[in-house]
């Protein structure tokens, strides 16, 4: 979950509550669902929160939510915006994998060191969350005074151009560099370039943004040094590119609200798309061609919430006035209304920085939070149902009980293992052998650890590992597991044949084949199945002391004395007899 | 007078003038000490002898102590090497002296730690000086160690401060032993003079004794019924399995039916049905285990369409979808389930065992798999307790009431519900409760009411509330385990499984 560093002093200043001490602030933040995780070296709070309210990814957003919580603010706030002077012209050469752009001009910002840090953090956190590590949306913030606009094609003002370029078509000086590089060189020679090279690796052309002077940004990888923002910057150009218009527009709204809270003025930007845009992902929502896109889009959206639904979900009776009050204290606007069938409902306006409201239920949650969920009295639901166990799980339990009665220590091993443990150390070769355990492996794509690369095809290797890890413990060691194993099987829907397996091992100084067979006889009797043990070969067992486990006529497993090579491989210095068979055979 | 055989022997072996130890008596009689102790107490109860207890301390060399008797104390070796290197004349590099001393590994630290303390010289900024007046041959600790090795010294004769040092350095141990001394009383002497006979006793009750009726005339040898018997380990269910059984009992008692289903399943059931957008960060291979198998062959086509529609367009008149890519290819990918909510989806959709009509309660306690970093509280695979309740109208209060009831069965009370966010539930709550032992407030689960975007595509028109919790977490809470790796997996210690208290 995201963690955001927030300066408590900035929080006090932005909320206007200088009297709150750190402890009170932490309490209030917990109430918002922001958990205090610790402090940075500079004394900033590290706050962890669930990734729904992305508008709280900066101190400005957190302060706004606190002011609503304190009751200092009510209802929806929308900043004023000035009319557009700048246009982003989108060229038809733009890569069709990244066809969308948005932007805003922000004037008269007062960026001290702290405010600049906060802005950079917000940018990074938005990249990490909504921006899906810049794949879906990437933010570029530029010093406006360093941009030289071209006369827009409609001659109404300044313009910059979003285009696609070849890897070596042009050069610019990227951030953290002191020489000119082509976009291709940035991806191989620049540290940030290497980090994000994967995103554009399959693009037909590379995204680039030009002003009248030339190339100044290579989204989503890196900005140019010319337009770098510093504490001296007064006016900013914010642009965002991405694979989805809605996503970058919402990211832009969050940034604009944060800068507005710092006293800046937001100025609109026109986005001029080509008439026949091509999108690599054809299912993506299209932008109407020929319509001027004016951004940021700070319009509110509307949802209708039924009064009954609120009362039903919270389990309390509420006055309509109270509901409106709770909605307003959540930063929403609400008026009462009637649905077509005359039922009381609320028409709720949702501010443009909210990205988490997909359904009226999300607003019921807001009402609940404002009301205080912990104020509600728990009640046991008055619905009668009959409990019961699954047949497989009761069979498992019954077998486990019998094994425990026979003196076995019940085990619980991991289902994931590796080829060496599952096959090699048991002398089994899945390509060569056709025996219990030699099933084709179900392997894990891109395993994280070489110890866990596949699902075990049988359970005996796990038992051998437990014996190996317990050679310092007293014998006899009689161990058993009723557990899970799986192998590759093209006849299955999922290509994975799953089964429950019963495995046991008796490690004793005088262990012999009959000890294992005696256990099987006992189980066969307990579960009323007929046991036969015709001789067989198995690479894990000694020839001549190995048998198939045949239950009610079906070959379902193996029993025998473990091969000395397997014992030595597991550092065991005494005989071990073992068995494994399918649980279902006992049904 | 008639007495059992052992008592007669003890009485005859004891003296009225010299106190005899029980050990000596046992040696003399060739009996086990515990047998003799039993007889001694019986005789003392009859007033025939007195027993006096004396606690004795011994001082014994540890293995490390014995090593130093052979090779010399590390600090003495260091001093000798230092003098050899001329450190009694001026500072010498520490590395040089250590090299010359032949000390290695932990012995170096031991030498350095004791060197200055015992006045052999000083160590400063990597250089070492030796006090020319120090006399390693007079080292008090070394002297005592040597004397102990030769058996030339009694515990009481060692200077207290030296002994304390040696104990703190683990060079000696001071085990205590209690010795019982026995003396005949006047009654004992009298009894002996009047004559004491051995009564006829029987060790083992045999079939012959029983059938012949002889058992009526014999006396049974007394056993020391307080002595420890041989250690015996019976079979035992795994502690985590016992906890699972307990959870299942509780849930069945609360009216829940058990679910089951595949471990390897399509992402459709694991994630898409749960309204997790396909570009959600938790759906990368860093969080879940994708399997190297072809895509799932069979998915219910109509359900797939409804789920895709919910992702793209939302549910209901005012619903919005995600602005994320959605393809059936991704939905067909086969993973190890990251949660057993995939089972809930199969049951709620009617694909597990037919359409369900409210009310219903279902649960499972089954394995899930997460590509996490292994540490004391995280495993790559663990058991998830999953439960849900389906009813016409459910409120947050019903959810709270159900969980309060469940956790109380495990001694966890005063639940707190912290509003939370999950893509698949709204409202959502993290559950916190008071640790039954430590009183700490700890997270004990995640819960919520399934979103309409989850339920409507599945064909469910009523409310469903659900919660999840790691079984291992519950076990750690109720049993106070610190490291879950000690419990679950092939690294488990068999003695731990054999000796851990059972769950009930």
Automatic annotation (TrEMBL), chain A:
Name of protein: Phenylalanine--tRNA ligase beta subunit
For this record, an example GO cellular component is: phenylalanine-tRNA ligase complex
Q: Which organism is it from?
A: Haloarchaeobius iranensis
Broadest EC class?
ligase
- A Pfam family of the record is tRNA_synthFbeta
Matching InterPro entries: aa-tRNA-synth_II/BPL/LPL, B3/B4_tRNA-bd, DNA-bd_dom_put_sf, Phe-tRNA-ligase_IIc_bsu, Phe-tRNA-synth_IIc_bsu_arc_euk, Phe-tRNA_synthase-like_B3/B4, Phe_tRNA_ligase_beta2_arc, PheRS_beta_core
Q: Which gene encodes it?
A: pheT
Q: Which UniProt keywords apply?
A: Aminoacyl-tRNA synthetase, ATP-binding, Cytoplasm, Ligase, Magnesium, Metal-binding, Nucleotide-binding, Protein biosynthesis
List the catalytic activities from the record: tRNA(Phe) + L-phenylalanine + ATP = L-phenylalanyl-tRNA(Phe) + AMP + diphosphate + H(+)
Q: Which PANTHER family match?
A: PHENYLALANINE--TRNA LIGASE BETA SUBUNIT, PHENYLALANYL-TRNA SYNTHETASE BETA CHAIN AND LEUCINE-RICH REPEAT-CONTAINING PROTEIN 47
TrEMBL record, chain B:
- Which reaction is the catalytic activity of this chain? tRNA(Phe) + L-phenylalanine + ATP = L-phenylalanyl-tRNA(Phe) + AMP + diphosphate + H(+)
Q: Where is the secretion signal located? A: none
Tell me which domain of life the UniProt entry assigns to the organism this sequence originates from: Archaea
Q: Give an example GO cellular component term for this record.
A: cytoplasm
- EC number annotated for this UniProt entry: 6.1.1.20
The protein's enzyme class: ligase
Q: Which residues bind Mg(2+)?
A: 426
Instruction: Quote the record's binding site residues for L-phenylalanine.
Output: 341, 384-386, 424, 450
Q: Report the PROSITE patterns cross-referenced here.
A: AA_TRNA_LIGASE_II
- GO BP: any one term: phenylalanyl-tRNA aminoacylation
Residues of the Aminoacyl-transfer RNA synthetases class-II family profile domain:
247-477
Please list the GO terms describing molecular function.
ATP binding; magnesium ion binding; phenylalanine-tRNA ligase activity; tRNA binding
User: Which key words tag this protein in UniProt?
Assistant: Aminoacyl-tRNA synthetase, ATP-binding, Cytoplasm, Ligase, Magnesium, Metal-binding, Nucleotide-binding, Protein biosynthesis
Query: What does the record list as coiled-coil region(s)?
Result: none
List, separated by semicolons, the cofactors it needs: Mg(2+)
CDD domains, per database record: PheRS_alpha_core (cd00496)
Database matches in Gene3D superfamilies: Bira Bifunctional Protein, Domain 2, Winged helix-like DNA-binding domain superfamily/Winged helix DNA-binding domain
Q: Enumerate the subcellular locations listed in this protein's record, separating them with semicolons.
A: Cytoplasm
Q: Which InterPro entries has this protein been placed in?
A: aa-tRNA-synth_II, aa-tRNA-synth_II/BPL/LPL, Phe-tRNA-synth_IIc_asu, Phe_tRNA_ligase_alpha_bac/arc, Phenylalanyl-tRNA_Synthase, WH-like_DNA-bd_sf, WH_DNA-bd_sf
One of its Pfam families is tRNA-synt_2d
Q: How is the cofactor bound?
A: Binds 2 magnesium ions per tetramer.
Q: Which family does it belong to?
A: Belongs to the class-II aminoacyl-tRNA synthetase family. Phe-tRNA synthetase alpha subunit type 2 subfamily.
User: Quaternary form?
Assistant: Tetramer of two alpha and two beta subunits.
- Protein name, UniProt field: Phenylalanine--tRNA ligase alpha subunit
Organism from which the protein derives = Haloarchaeobius iranensis
Q: What is the lineage of its organism?
A: Archaea, Methanobacteriati, Methanobacteriota, Stenosarchaea group, Halobacteria
């Amino acid at each position: 979950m995201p963690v955001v560093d927030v300066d408590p002093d900035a929080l006090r200043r932005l909320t206007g509550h200088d009297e709150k001490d750190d402890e009170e602030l932490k309490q209030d933040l917990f109430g918002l669902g922001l958990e205090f995780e610790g402090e940075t070296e500079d004394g900033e709070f590290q706050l962890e929160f669930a990734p729904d309210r992305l508008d709280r990814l900066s101190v400005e957003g957190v302060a706004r939510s606190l002011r609503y919580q304190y009751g200092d603010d009510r209802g929806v706030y929308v900043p004023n915006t000035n009319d557009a002077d700048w246009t982003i012209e989108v060229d038809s050469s733009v890569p069709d994998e990244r066809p969308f752009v948005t932007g805003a001009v922000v004037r008269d910002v007062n960026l001290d060191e702290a405010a600049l840090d906060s802005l950079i953090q917000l940018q990074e956190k938005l990249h990490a969350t909504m921006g899906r590590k810049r794949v879906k949306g990437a933010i570029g913030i530029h010093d406006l005074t360093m941009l030289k606009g071209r006369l827009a094609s409609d001659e109404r003002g300044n313009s910059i151009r979003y285009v696609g370029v070849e890897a070596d078509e042009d050069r610019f000086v990227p951030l953290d560099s002191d020489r000119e590089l082509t976009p291709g060189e940035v991806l191989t020679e620049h540290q940030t370039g290497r980090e994000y090279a994967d995103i554009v690796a399959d693009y037909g052309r590379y995204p680039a943004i030009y002003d009248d002077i030339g190339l100044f940004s290579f989204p989503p990888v890196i900005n140019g040094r010319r337009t770098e923002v510093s504490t001296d910057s007064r006016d900013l150009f914010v642009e965002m590119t991405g694979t989805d218009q809605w996503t970058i527009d919402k990211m832009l709204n969050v940034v604009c609200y944060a800068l507005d809270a710092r006293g800046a003025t937001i100025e609109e930007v026109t986005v001029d798309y080509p008439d026949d845009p091509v999108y690599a992902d054809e299912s993506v929502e299209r932008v109407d061609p020929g319509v001027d896109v004016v951004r940021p889009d700070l319009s509110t959206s509307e949802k209708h919430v039924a009064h009954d639904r609120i009362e039903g979900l919270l389990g309390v009776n509420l006055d309509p006035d109270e509901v409106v009050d709770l909605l307003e204290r959540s930063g929403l606007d609400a008026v009462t209304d009637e649905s077509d069938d005359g039922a009381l409902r609320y028409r709720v306006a949702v501010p443009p920085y909210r990205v988490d409201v997909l359904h009226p239920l999300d607003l019921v949650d807001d009402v609940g939070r404002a009301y205080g969920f912990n104020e509600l009295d728990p009640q046991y639901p008055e619905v009668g149902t009959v409990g019961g166990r699954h047949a497989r799980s009761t069979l498992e339990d019954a077998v486990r009980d019998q094994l425990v009665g026979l003196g076995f220590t019940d085990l619980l091993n991991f289902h994931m293992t590796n080829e060496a443990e599952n096959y090699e150390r048991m002398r089994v070769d899945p390509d060569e052998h056709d025996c219990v355990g030699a099933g084709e492996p179900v392997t894990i794509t891109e395993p994280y650890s070489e110890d866990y690369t596949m699902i075990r095809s049988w359970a005996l290797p796990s038992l051998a590992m437990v014996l190996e890890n317990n050679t310092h413990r007293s014998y006899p060691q009689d161990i058993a597991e009723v557990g899970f194993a799986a192998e590759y099987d093209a006849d299955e829907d999922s290509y994975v044949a799953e089964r429950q397996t019963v495995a046991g091992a008796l490690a004793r100084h005088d262990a012999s084949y009959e000890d294992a067979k005696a256990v099987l006889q006992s189980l066969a009797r307990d579960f009323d199945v007929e046991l036969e043990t015709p001789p067989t070969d198995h690479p894990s067992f000694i020839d001549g002391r190995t048998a198939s486990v045949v239950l009610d006529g079906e070959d379902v497993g193996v029993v025998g004395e473990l091969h000395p090579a397997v014992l030595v491989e597991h550092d065991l210095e005494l005989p071990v007899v073992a068995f494994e068979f399918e649980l279902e055979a006992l049904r | 007078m008639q007495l059992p055989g052992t008592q007669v022997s003890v009485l005859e072996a004891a003296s009225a003038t010299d106190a005899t130890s029980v050990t000596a008596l046992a040696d003399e009689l060739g009996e086990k000490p515990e047998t003799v102790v039993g007889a001694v107490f019986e005789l003392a109860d009859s007033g025939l002898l007195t027993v006096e207890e004396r606690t004795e301390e011994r001082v014994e060399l540890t293995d490390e102590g014995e090593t130093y008797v052979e090779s010399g104390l590390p600090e003495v070796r260091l001093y000798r090497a230092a003098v050899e290197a001329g450190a009694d004349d001026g500072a010498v590099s520490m590395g040089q002296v250590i090299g010359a001393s032949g000390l290695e590994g932990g012995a170096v630290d031991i030498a350095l730690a004791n060197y200055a303390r015992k006045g052999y010289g000083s160590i400063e900024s990597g250089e070492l000086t030796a006090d020319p007046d120090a006399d390693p041959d007079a080292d008090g600790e070394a002297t005592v160690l040597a004397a102990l090795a030769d058996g030339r010294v009694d515990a009481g004769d060692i200077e207290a401060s030296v002994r304390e040092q040696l104990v703190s350095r683990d060079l000696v141990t001071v085990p205590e032993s209690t010795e019982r001394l026995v003396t005949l009383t006047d009654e004992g002497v009298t009894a002996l003079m009047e004559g004491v006979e051995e009564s006829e006793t029987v060790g083992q009750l045999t079939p012959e004794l029983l059938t012949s009726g002889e058992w009526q005339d014999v006396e049974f040898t007394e056993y020391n019924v307080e002595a420890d018997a041989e250690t015996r380990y019976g079979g035992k269910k795994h502690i985590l399995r016992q906890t699972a059984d307990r959870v299942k009992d509780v849930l069945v008692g609360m009216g829940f039916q058990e679910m089951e289903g595949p471990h390897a399943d399509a992402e459709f059931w694991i994630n898409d049905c749960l309204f997790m957008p396909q570009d959600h960060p938790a759906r990368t291979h860093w969080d879940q285990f994708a399997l190297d198998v072809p895509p799932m062959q069979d998915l219910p086509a109509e359900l797939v369409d409804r789920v895709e529609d919910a992702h793209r367009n939302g549910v209901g008149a005012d619903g919005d979808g995600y602005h994320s890519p959605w393809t059936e290819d991704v939905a067909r990918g086969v993973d190890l389930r990251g949660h057993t909510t995939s089972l809930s989806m199969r049951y709620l959709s009617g694909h597990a065992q037919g359409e369900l009509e409210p009310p219903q309660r279902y649960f499972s306690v089954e394995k899930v798999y997460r590509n996490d970093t292994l540490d004391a509280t995280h495993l790559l695979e663990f058991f998830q307790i999953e439960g849900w309740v389906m009813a016409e109208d459910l409120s947050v209060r019903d959810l709270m009431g159900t969980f309060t009831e469940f956790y109380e069965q495990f001694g966890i009370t005063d639940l707190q519900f912290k509003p939370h966010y999950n893509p698949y539930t709204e409202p959502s709550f993290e559950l916190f409760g008071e640790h039954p032992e430590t009183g700490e407030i700890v997270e004990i689960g995640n819960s919520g009411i399934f979103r309409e975007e989850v339920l409507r595509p599945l064909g469910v028109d009523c409310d469903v509330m659900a919660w999840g919790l790691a079984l291992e977490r519950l076990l750690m809470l109720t049993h106070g385990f610190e490291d879950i790796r000690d419990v679950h997996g092939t690294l488990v210690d068999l003695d731990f499984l054999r000796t851990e208290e059972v769950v009930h």
